Amino acid sequence: MKISFVLITTSLAGGVRYVFEVANGLKNRGYNVKILSLAGDHSWFKGLKVEVVYKEPIMNKISKTLYNLHKVYKLIKLNKSKIKPYNSILAFNSLLGIKSNLITELAEFIQNFRF
Description:
Layout: E1 2-9, H1 14-28, E2 32-39, E3 51-54, H2 61-76, H3 85-96, H4 102-112
Parallel strand pairs: 1-2, 2-3
């Protein structure tokens, strides 16, 4: 049986940890499990046995500019940082009052994903 978990982000959080634990348990029982996410970094969870697939975000002009600025900044200052550019875009967008349509992005990701 194929099972997919869909998350907006895989950043450090209790709910995300719970999904990882359940996914590992299902994988141990022989299920084909994948985790789909728009953003995040799952390296904080040691021992994850399930593949995490990230989707490249759909971005407007402001988001693209912020994304590129973050990449340049990361190269200059945050070379060892675990912060992903897309997480910064979500934070900047919320500060600027721009609402990303994450539900549409997730729905398209699920529709186009093939095991």
